[in-house]
Give the backbone structure.
Amino acid sequence: MSRKLTIDPVTRVEGHGKVTIHLDDRNNVIQSRLHIVEFRGFEKFIQGRPYWEAPVLVQRLCGICPVSHHLAAVKALDVIVGVGPDGLTPTGEKMRRLMHYGQIFQSHSLHFFHLASPDLLFGIDAPPAKRNIIEVAREFKELAVQGVMMRKFGQEIIRATAGKKVHGTGAIPGGINKNLSIEERDYFLKGEDPLNIDKMIEWSVAAIELFKDYHRKHRDMVDNFAAFPSNHLSLVRKDGALDLYHGVLRAIDHKGNKILHDVDYQNYLDYIGEEVKNWSYMKFPFLKNIGREEGWYRVGPLARLNTCDFIPSPLAQKAFEEFRAYTNGKPNNMSLHMHWARLIEVLHAAEVMKELLNDPDLQRDDLIAEGERCEEGVGVIEAPRGTLFHHYKVNKEDLITMCNLIVSTTNNNEPMNKAVREVADQMISGQKAIKEGMLNAVEVAIRAYDPCLSCATHAMGQMPLEVSLYDAEGELLDIKTK
Amino acid sequence: MGERKKKVLIYGYGNPGRQDDGLGIKLVEKLEAQAEKNGHKSMDFESNYQLNIEDAHTISTYDLVIFVDASVEKDVDDIILKTVMPTEKTEFTMHAMLPGFILYLCQNLYGKYPDTYLLSIKGYEFEFMEDMTDRAKENLKKAINLITGFLFSSGRPEYHSKVIMRGDRPE
């Protein structure tokens, strides 16, 4: 008798998805799928609105990474107002970069300390009541405080650069609407311990050591859990450096061969297609030159550290060299190494913030650049979860006539499905009894990608966590709710 | 020696781009403007899309915190002000948190937590629009009246240790 397992919704991620795993009569996995069951509608909603509203309107998509949407949208509109991706004033670009690296820092910190650390500190198969931030706060108080304060530091950077936390208006087409005052700068550079940039760097270094220590003790699990070969895609700076704000598109295959050669993202439609499947509202992007079947790719911290040649900040570069040496310079295809890569990016973000905070350009008044208006623009940014595309067309009346978004989680759709299948094969296939820890293992694989499912489908809703067992005829055998 | 003035934080959260979901943010905007106009400097204001772990640190430095949020709960007819107690209960997404969970985290990390209330304001529509519904706007007015009465009943910030107040019962 075959069975179907359903994990609904997946927990400790943002948004609402469910997983179904079909088993045959020997409990071998015959199919697994991550379904996204929310409906998207934002791209239609924004049509007919004046283009200058877009950087604020897109923050309605999701309260988790509004800064990423804000900046991707405004980068597309830079093109439309004729400034182009490279025409900003130094103050305009550096203020945006500070905002973005603040976002990366707080988002990654939240993910590691709050969402992922319970699995690492207590074990994937620990009781569910144990796997949460409260238990981390009880047993690893210092670590929990670090997570809280790192998140707070990043949020305050966003407030200082975007003007406010909710519906920030900092970035506007062609530039930025404020600079950073000396008082704001000194708050971050010389703030009362621990809220200052030097402490953030110190804690970021310590977080990498924490992961490495865990890795040393659980090497087999960390290296083999949901490990599978894939292509990787991200922006890189023109000289190959890691750059989370701007660059060209590069993709490599699982052996490290370049399959997308540092192309201009204004032409992304020439390189990337999106496939629709009838069991999910989330599309499946792929590289057109490779094809639908083999052209899927990973985005996010792991992909970025695989595609870039170096990291342009000293401490993160040192950590990067160790990371790359672990796979002998070849692409790293181990899903749980996403945490390692994410923490290296945390350190890099902290170093970049320090460099920017010490840059006098942030106190200058040349905020806006101007150019010749055109009708179409694409903005791409490396959001915390991966490459984020915003594409707009605008008519002569300044109204948006077309919007296309490919968000990070959508880019990771097929990899997350692969990760689910890998874990299902490793931990569930052939087992006589299905335990809660096995189902959490599936969630751990998805969680490593830090998916934002609300973002990917642009909707809201709520469902309880439900695990259902079905036989081959579709009869419900058992149901459990978390 | 006079009694130390209590530090008060009014914290609205929600997404103002989603119609009535922005009720908490709107209340903070209006109340902050009102406090500035009337010269009330004894309280701070904060807004965000949702509550998160860093708010445990934020509230740890206050004596009184009032969270303000839009609500679709059945027990909220228009507005309701309730005491919040620490709780381990979390949302499954863990990217957004309940006020009681923030208190619980605050207690665990900092060994204390402030007197805390949640002012829930009934909302009706949560689409991709900025304009709130007329009913939500009415509820917002009631909420502002309730909270100003609660905080400024004798011309200076005051509060009670336990309270459940509804819109039609300002005290």
